[in-house]
Every structure is written in C-alpha cells, then in structure tokens.
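Thread: quick sanity check before group meeting

JM: Hey all, I'm pulling together slides for Thursday and realized we never actually wrote out the predicted structure for the chain we discussed last week. Dropping the sequence here so it's in one place. If anyone has concerns about the input, flag it before I start.
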Amino acid sequence: MLRFIRSLFAPGTPEQDLPAVPPGQRVYAIGDVHGRLDLFEVMVAAIEEDDEAGGVADTTVILLGDLVDRGPDSAGVLRAAREWQQQRKVRILAGNHEEMFLNSFDNAEMLRHFLRHGGKQTILSFGVPRRILASTDLAEIQEAMRSHVPQADRDYMATFEDMIRIGDYVFVHAGIDPAVPLAEQRRSDLRWIREPFLSHAEAHGPVIVHGHTISEEPEDRGNRIGIDTGAYGSGRLTALVLEGTRRRYIEAVAVEGKVGAAPRAIG
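JM (edit): ok, ran it. Output follows.
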C-alpha cells in the first residue's frame, strides 16, 4: 500500500510567511531505508510517477541517511541508490549507520558496536558467510568484510553529505544542536543527536527535515519534520514532498509480505 498524507498548516497563516522551496523546484526527502530494498524500489517508482504527474520542475531527491543496517538487503539498497543517481538528481546524507559501517573495517570496538545494531544483516547482504559472523575473532570478521564488501561501495558511502539546504529547509540525518549556528554544527550531532534537538520548541531559522528518530507517523513540529517511520521494523518508508509552500507525504507500505502502490488521502 502506498499512502499520500496531507499536511495542514496552521489556519490563517499568510502564504508568504510559510516555509517554501524556491519557485520551480520540487523536493522529495526519503527517511531511513535501513536495508529495505523492497520498500525502496516501490518508493522510487512512486516518486518517478508522482514527479511526472506534477509537471516540469527542477527536482531533487534527498535520502536522509541510514540506507544500511537492520533490514535484509543493505547491499541492494546501495546499488539501487547509485543506479537512481545515474538517472536523476539524487543527493544522499550520511547517517550514523554509514559512519559505523565504514569505521568498523579498521576499528574492532566500532565493529562490535556495529554488529549489535544491525551490522550482521548488512554484512550478510554482501555475502560474508554466517559461519564467520559466528566467530568471536573480530579480526577474522574484518578480513571477511574487506574481501566481500567492494571498495567501490565503501568509497561511495564516504561521499555522502552531512547537510543540504534548499530554500527554507535544511536536511540532515539526525538533527542539529539548537545552541550552535548551522555553519558550525558538529558532524557527530548531525549524524547522532536526539536531545536537546527533539524537544526544542523554538524556531531554528530554516525548518529541519531529519530521520534517525522513529515515529509512527511523520512528525511535523513546525521547526522540524521527522520522517523516520521505522521502515526495517514497521514496513513503512516515508517521503516528504515539498513544492512551493506545499507539503505532502508519500508512504510505501508492506502488508503481509507484499508491497503495493495505491493512493490514500488522509486529513
């Protein structure tokens, strides 16, 4: 099932005071995929269909990071993302799980942490044998990772961005430190922060669009919009669509093992 969710602004707000992307632009921001290639493929098709139906625009797709870990096919998601970039403008943010993955090749303690937070599924998706993952020898696991995970994929993840700004919106993986100017944000906060960002009620200037923290539905708090709906566990992958001052959502959903596409208006 694919759901299109209507986002309502505060009644009576003048349109000129609403956050907007520049005229002629359309933005699709996709939350944490976490190895769910099935949902990602449906989302790609839905966005292509939606963009074509919306007419000519300067369209940008932004993946908010955490393409890997927890779900069953991180290798496939990376491959699909790269192929999509060859067809249209797709920009990708680095999440904390990409950071853990890349650092785990040479850092045994990071590998231990990575394996506890979905890394096993990622490594298996690249063809590392299960018997090696059962080993307590971290060096053996690292050697297997180096031989099975293509250097091209590691280099690809290393190119992911930390922050993207379009119009009145800033896109990051996890959030920002509200006490620090945007230009001075620490990479660790952009990829890992929860508090005090999530509970901060005052304006940040631009609206912050982020993933990282799971919610059942997209969270539009005015100063931030969270769109990580826990795809790896919930079977729901969410995209925010921005055009002018309008906001709407596209949600790819797996129901009883099947992923389909059907519009559904809410609100």
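AS: nice. The chain is about 35% helix and 25% strand. The CA atoms of residues 168 and 206 lie 5 Å apart.
JM: adding both to the slides.
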